[in-house]
Amino acid sequence: MLYYDQRKDLCEVTRMMFDRFNTNAAGGNISVKVSEKHFIMTPTLMSQAKFCRLNPEDIIVIDKNGDIYEGNGKVTREFNMHIAVFESIPDAGAVVHAHPKESMVFASLGMDLPHLTEATRKLGEIKALDFAPATSVELAERVRSYMEERKNSLPVAALLREHGILVVDRTLRKAYDMLERIEYNAYVNIHANLFRALGIYNPKEEKGNLAYNVEE
């Protein structure tokens, strides 16, 4: 089996993503660059049909043209969005697309996600992109345009209006790690706004520059 260890690891991360409510049965997909020619990718309907319980043989080995070399699964219709990322960011090693519960609030409202946690500040921004229909060429091109702007600043994340999130990093584990950081940051934002509305918390402007850790 081609890339067995990488496909097994992708199965573990995919299951973790579903079990921790970082995606839902409506979808999500992950791709990993494993060579200059090949990518491995979760199959279509991984959530709806399999609840992200995948085996290595379900993971497809594919090239940028969509030709499958191995794997029982079929290509997700969002393949074009993943390839747009890899073509825009040469150092990208993994792309995670998900529908995380807390971040979906910001994505659905088209709101950029502010940083309230130090752990996400290395992203620079978590921007909500303008709406484009799921699986469409328009969405892939919208993602491509944004990723080209950010091609020298991995990791990168973007909210897809009324759809979900994209997280890009050099490795699969790093990309998934950032997905969880963003989701916790979204949770903190929602509750902080509730505290403000209730008058429990009245933020004061910070004086001076805080020395955030953006390396770890």
Question: Would you give an account of this structure?
Answer:
The protein is of the alpha+beta class and 216 residues long. The protein has one domain: L-fuculose-1-phosphate Aldolase, CATH 3.40.225. The chain has five helices and eight strands. The protein has an eight-stranded mixed beta sheet with strand order 4-3-2-1-5-8-7-6, with helices on both faces. A hairpin with a 5-residue loop joins strand 1 and strand 2. Helix 2 packs parallel to helix 4.
CATH topology: L-fuculose-1-phosphate Aldolase
What is the mean predicted local confidence, pLDDT?
94
Cα-to-Cα separation, first versus last residue? 34 Å
Residue share in β-strands: 15-25%
**Which architecture per CATH?**
3-Layer(aba) Sandwich
Strand order of the largest sheet: 4-3-2-1-5-8-7-6
Name of the level-1 CATH class: Alpha Beta
Poorly predicted runs are none
Number of domains: 1
Order of helices and strands: HEEEEHEHEHEEH
Number of helices, counting only DSSP H or I runs of 4 residues or more? 5
| Backbone CA Rg | 17 Å
Biggest beta sheet summary: 8 strands, mixed
Gross geometry: globular
Fold topology:
Layout: H1 4-19, E1 29-33, E2 39-41, E3 60-62, E4 68-70, H2 79-88, E5 94-98, H3 103-109, E6 127-129, H4 137-149, E7 156-160, E8 164-169, H5 172-198
Helix pairs in contact: 2-4
Domain Class II aldolase/adducin N-terminal: 8-190
Keywords: Lyase, Metal-binding
Pfam families: Aldolase_II
Short description:
With 216 residues, the protein is α+β, with helices and mostly antiparallel strands. The protein is built from five helices and eight strands; from the N terminus they run αββββαβαβαββα.
